[in-house]
Amino acid sequence: LNQQLIYGRRPVDQSCTVEEMFCATCCAAPDKSELDIGKPLVEAKGVLDRDQVKLGDSAVFDVKLTFEGRSHGLNIDTANDEQAVVKDVSGAALTWNRNASPSQQIKAADLILKVNGEPVTGETVHNKLADAAPEVTVTLQHAVERSLTLQKPGQLGITVKFAKSSHGIWIATLAPGLVQDWNEKHPEQCVAVNDRIISVNGARGQSQDLVAKMREVSDTIALVVMHYE
pTM for this one? Predict the structure, then answer.
């Protein structure tokens, strides 16, 4: 379920205002969830440890996987049509990790860029992988963890989207507001559209947990974001 929720305004799509957002299942499109954080509100499971994704630099690398039966061993989040993001690994992908150097291991929040040299998105990755059996070369990009501390007053100026099982919640749009101000003041820690928010004010967990935390009113909003260069 990929739903849409809206904070602070009524968009042209089916959505919810701040007062209505608890009724997401009745007033949002049944397969979309979007949260427009116009007002200052504001894990991967399995074999991958969230601590593994704390890398200093973004890196692009190739992995070569030999299918075990029909499985490549990648659990992929495709809730965002534009991205294929690794949630966890098993089987062939776990075997790769056991033999690879740390910089070449598949980690939670890694972005899948290509399958056998062909670019992929959240819409195309599964078919490309299925067609590639029994062996495949996957090009991935490690995300960079960034920590933002935002202070009221002001609007965040971002829209986030999420699905029930997605790895965090991703930034769908970025407009003038606290996040954009942060980017201008901290270019080395900037965030962008399609980056993944994985923690809100110290809370991690399922996407619904993050959204619930963003509903809480707070003078300070601390976000941990997985950024893709």
Answer: 0.74
